[in-house]
Amino acid sequence: MGALPLRARMVLHASARCVAPDTPVPADVGVSLGTQFGAIDVAEQALETVAREGFGGVTPSAYATGLPNAVAAIVASVHGLQGPNLTLLGYQSGLDAIIAACRQIRAGNARAMLAGGFDLPSERYAAHLKDTPRYADAGPILPGVGLLWVREADPAEEAAGAVVMGWASGHLATPLSALGQDTASDPDVRALIARAVPGEEGAGVRIHALYPGRPGLPDYLAASAPLYLIETVLAAPAPGVHAVLVQGFHPTACLCLVIRKTAGRVAEHALPGSEET
């Protein structure tokens, strides 16, 4: 067996903080990952090799590692995760993968899910993005991985963590990048939060808006939302209700996840369950 692709090693390294190496993992635990680039570097390399040497220069295994879902398969194999195995694509897919994990758990298809996003940007495509007006004032486009262990909430443990209240998808007439300080009062944003949590229209909810090319900030693509959840929402010292909104490269589509933190900081190395449904 050859060396694992770098993006797979990145995700495996991060997963070690969620899945204890000496702890038996139940068979009905799954993986849900999102990525913008997938394995585009492998695809580019394969195409270049074919153009230079013909199809004989590319092995079947190279094609396999170039599939977007190869990383989720590798992670599941290494950790023995035999539950649902999902790969979602796009800028919003890191948050979408967490929502998909919640859906699988609530449907009874899994006891828990390792969920989040990763990206190892192609230098060629990252350079292309940086040349677009959207990224004119943005920070660098960087590799990143953000993972959470998602499981059914135990009522007795809710006071020690964070609980997913709901989620929704919809369309905004005004892009998040143009709303700025008006995000909380935007009627489409309030309606999106109300769909995620019926009866909740945003009053007292802290809104976090994420989108490609945020001025002055590094962009981790599909890993941006999971990393933001871990480093900002879950690391916040105070409890509260948080709505994380992610808008990708589509001009109007938006994804919303609403979380209630019932305690202070959620420990990074807590027992499985640092993010609960």
Describe this structure in words.
This protein has two domains: 6-151, Peroxisomal Thiolase, Chain A, domain 1; 156-276, no CATH class. The protein is built from nine helices and nine strands. The protein has helices spanning 6-15, 40-53, 60-65, 70-79, 93-106, 123-130, 176-179, 187-196, 224-233; strands spanning 29-35, 85-89, 112-119, 144-151, 162-171, 205-210, 240-246, 253-261, 275-276. The strands form two sheets. It has a five-stranded mixed beta sheet with strand order 2-1-3-4-9, sandwiched between helices. Helix 9 links the parallel strand 6 (205-210) and strand 7. Helix 1 (6-15) packs across helix 4 (70-79).
Which CATH architecture of the largest domain? 3-Layer(aba) Sandwich
Roughly how many Å apart are the termini? 37 Å
Characterize the largest beta sheet: strand count, sense, and whether it forms a barrel.
5 strands, mixed
**What is the share of helical residues?**
25-40%
Return the domain count. 2
Helix-and-strand structural type: alpha/beta
GO molecular function: acyltransferase activity
InterPro entries: Ketoacyl_synth_N, Thiolase-like
Pfam families: ketoacyl-synt
Protein name: Beta-ketoacyl synthase-like N-terminal domain-containing protein
